[in-house]
Specification:
mainly alpha; single chain; 15 helices
């Protein structure tokens, strides 16, 4: 291996940023097929760097708190972007596909993945639930390629809308299952003094989970998001002078204030961020300021994406997948090829969505940065054993890596086909 100097590091980082900035426009102008997406390039670049250079080892367990904070920033900024780009008015019918993906598809994914992890991987029940909850949500960061465009710039096709709104909301609504796994693990560890991988799902654990982690945290997160979004929109559009606000600072402030207040209120901060951005978008919805905000958030989000996926590639090259062995490969394939597509198809039955759009929504549930956040959070806050943690990281990283490549290669063709069918003749 070659030593990785500071100059080498800057070269790799700069090349990645330039690639994200220039190559999409170049390929579009020259009408070249987009053979490789930015996430795939970052992943392959990370793997190559880990194999060729003497890079400091990434300790996913020891550095869990750092990973949690970095991925947290990526997710909350992406959630702001999701909320700002959605133009469709909120409603039971207009958001029908979203409610089905959240209320049917995601619980089915979590249940099936828990069963597969327990029966095939041999994981204890609480650990299997943690893995399932971490990998179930569609990622708002990596799923940007299949989402709706910037605010006000295009009609929201149903498949793109469903994937965007699902990614915006399910990152907050997967948290109750993370907390259930943590509470069960803590109950087991508290009584035995050993790691709580198996978990104890007692009546008290379930009761507290339903009241606090399901009911209160969802309501609190939603309420805080609405209040923050409404309040900041009123200040920006009614009190402040026109064109007197820097979009960068407002976007960051909206994200940080809604997230922190949601957490302080003992709610789900992820949910607060998305609801705040969605509420802000509804205020003076035709104002060009929304587009400026979205563009800024999207650019910052891409920087985090480059770093996180590149580091994932490095960790893979350093042997992150070794603990999972053959059963882990089976579970990963089962989850991506069967569990999510089938659960997505079932969730959309009776929704009236055409078959090709149902297929696109079902198979394009992209996994990514959010899964890393949830896993880092769960393993940092729960009494799980080191061996179990290594397996969970290996499986999650492989799911994300395969999703990056698989969905990165197939998503453009699938979405372009839908766009062609929906384009007026």
């Amino acid at each position: 291996m070659f030593p990785l100097s500071y100059e080498h590091f800057l070269l790799l980082l700069g090349a990645g940023i330039l690639g994200a900035t220039i190559m999409p426009a170049v390929t579009q102008k020259l009408r070249w097929p987009m053979l490789i997406s930015l996430p795939i390039a970052c992943l392959l670049g990370g793997i190559g760097t880990g194999l060729l250079f003497d890079v400091p080892r990434i300790d996913v367990l020891g550095q869990g708190p750092v990973i949690q904070r970095v991925t947290e920033m990526a997710v909350i900024l992406s959630l702001t972007g999701c909320g700002l780009k959605l133009d469709r008015p909120l409603g039971l019918r207009s958001w029908g596909s979203t409610w089905r993906l959240l209320g049917i598809t995601m619980p089915l994914c979590i249940a099936a993945m828990t069963l597969a992890s327990w029966s095939i991987l041999g994981l204890p029940l609480a650990a299997a639930l943690l893995l399932a909850a971490a990998t179930a949500p569609t990622d708002p960061v990596l799923a940007s390629s299949v989402q709706v465009g910037p605010p006000g710039e295009e009609e929201e096709a149903e498949a793109r809308f469903a994937l965007t709104s699902e990614a915006g909301l399910n990152d907050g609504l997967a948290f109750p299952f993370i907390y259930l796994a943590l509470a069960a693990a803590a109950a087991m560890s508290g009584s035995s003094g050993a790691p709580g991988d198996e978990g104890r799902f007692s009546d008290e654990v379930i009761r507290n989970w339903l009241v606090i982690d399901v009911a209160w945290k969802i309501v609190a997160g939603t309420a805080v998001g609405w209040l923050v979004g409404r309040g900041i929109a009123w200040l920006a559009f009614r009190v402040a002078p026109p064109n007197g606000i820097a979009d960068a600072f407002l976007a960051i402030g909206l994200t940080f204030v809604s997230y922190s207040l949601g957490e302080v209120a003992n709610g789900y901060g992820f949910l607060s961020v998305f609801v705040a951005a969605l509420t802000f978008r509804r205020y003076e919805r035709n104002h060009k300021f929304h587009v400026e905000l979205h563009h800024f958030v999207e650019q910052v989000e891409q920087l985090f994406l480059i770093g996180v996926i590149f580091a994932t590639g490095v960790a893979l090259a350093q042997g992150l997948l070794i603990p999972i062995r053959t059963p882990g490969l089976v579970v990963v394939g089962l989850f991506l090829a069967v569990i999510r597509p089938v659960a997505g198809w079932i969730g959309l039955i009776g929704n009236g969505m055409p078959r090709d759009e149902r297929f696109a929504v079902s198979v394009l549930g992209i996994r990514g940065v959010g899964g890393f956040y949830y896993l880092a959070y769960g393993l940092s806050h729960g009494p799980f054993s080191i061996e179990t943690g290594q397996i969970l990281w290996g499986v999650t990283a492989l799911i994300v890596a395969v999703s990056v490549v698989l969905h990165g290669l197939t998503a453009p063709a699938i979405m372009d086909r839908l766009t062609g069918k929906n384009r007026p003749s």
